[in-house]
Amino acid sequence: MQAFDLDSHSPQGPSEYPPVDHWSIPVGRLAGVQLYLSYSVFIALAVLAVVIATVQNRQGEADLPVIASAAMAFWVTGWCVQLIVYLMFQNGPATRSDVLTIGLIGVEVGHPLSRPICWTAATNLVVTSIALGGLSMFGVACLVVHLHGQSLPIGSFQSWRQALATPGFGLGSINNVYLSAAWLFWFQAFCQAYPMPRNLGRGALVSAMVLFASEANEAFKLKLVRRVIQLIAIVTVLVALSVLVVETAEGIPRWLVLLALALLLWQSSGRRDLIAWIRSIEIAKLDQSTVPSLALEGADSDSMDSHRSISKLAHTRPRRNQMAGPLWQMIDTVQMHRKRRRAKAVWKRERSEAEDAARLDEILERVNEQGIESLSPDELALLQRVSESLRKNRPAEDSTGG
Fold this sequence. Notes:
Strand order of the largest sheet: 1-2-3-4
Distance between the termini: 40 Å
Keywords: Membrane, Transmembrane, Transmembrane helix
Largest sheet: 4 strands, mixed
Oligomer: single chain
Number of helices: 13
Strand content: 5-15%
Radius of gyration: 29 Å
Structural class: mainly alpha
Number of domains: 3
Shape: elongated
Mean pLDDT: 76
């Protein structure tokens, strides 16, 4: 069945799907998913190469290229953990993703309404929890390996505290490479959990707030999410001030990095992706109640494909409104649900009528030749449906003619 744009009434469908990301390049397909790599990765690699080339000839820095290579390998391993989690859910009918982008800290979450199938709040929370839990467990495993290599008792809290107190996160020595790996996994998990745009924690936070205020209206949910994000930003500022009190003047001041992160998070609380997250969860809730009804009615694969096509079009921007403003201003959840429901009903009715009409001539010809006894129960039911349809339409035609 050809895609049909419910708003523009164009048989060509809506604007390009999925939307083009100009800050990444395609690197191939994996398990049916198109993978993109963000340009930020190449920028970070270039900066790292310059730093290594600058300081590797200094005294005591001979191991820096090896340490950097090992750190990069563990960092990429963290990407793989996140990617595996997403691919585990790829085959699910309610969690399919056509595109995944790998950014500097791992899997990047694009615009929530650009997914072919919007995710429910529970799905967002489960995927994020598994990804962050996997990264945290890898960090713990690397710390255990480090303690074993240093001949320290693994079950001793003092040993863990001593290892974690190693200056420079263990990056100063090749002997502490697994300690550095543990910090890298935990740092990656922290960055993904921090609710900045395109991070896993952003969608998880919105999902948790939507579940918490499930009976509230959209305006209240948006206000609640913004206030929680601003609260996290304030807490980050307080942490930055506490770090400022105890931090020495050596190296890059960590309090300044935390303060900048808090300001960016505060600014992001006004971004329109928050309303898009809320509406994507509401659309997923509506789709979840629509798809089972089709299955109970005995819908075949064609009707399910039709539902996915209509649902997919409902999540994207109509062609005629491309210049009218942001995507979130043009999508009304209730209206789009009603349009999908009407479109499915019209399509099913027209398809049923077309099938009945195609069989009716054959059945009537057999009745003339062999009698009504030659018909099967299914064919008799078809004749009954056609007869009832004619009786229902006849009064309307008589009243029109009068």
